[in-house]
Amino acid sequence: MKTEVRDFLVGVLRDVLHLEIDDDHSDETPLDLESLFLVELVVQAEGRFGIELADEEVYQDSTVSLGDLVRLVVDKRTAVELGSGVAT
Q: Taking every annotated instance into account, which residue ranges of this chain make up the domain Carrier (predicted)?
C-alpha cells in the first residue's frame, strides 16, 4: 500500500498542483508547499483512500515531507481496514 499511496501523492503534486517532482524525490525532503497546496493534497488523499486526517496530524510540522504524508495515509487506511479505528 505504501507504494500506491506514494504514487498517488506524487501524481497529485504533478497533475493537480502542477509541481515538478522527480520519481526519485527523497521521501524525507520537506515538500515546502503553500498551505492551500497542502490542503488540496490532503483532500485528494482523503477522497482516494476513504480516510479523514485531523488537522493537527497534518499541520503539526511546517516541514512536512512526502514520507510523512505517506506514513500518515497508510496508517489511517490500515486502521480503517482492520476495523480498529474509524476514518477520522
A: 1-77
pTM for the full predicted model: 0.85
Domains of the chain: 2-82 (1.10.1200.10)
> 16 and 39 in contact (C-beta within 8 Å)?
no
61 is written with which cell numbers? 510540522
Strand partners for 30: 65
pLDDT in tens, 29-75: 888 888 899 999 999 999 999 999 988 888 877 688 999 999 999 99
Amino acid at 32: D
Give the DSSP letter string of 38-84.
Answer: HHHHHHHHHHHHT----HHHHSS-TT-BHHHHHHHHHHHHHHHHHTS
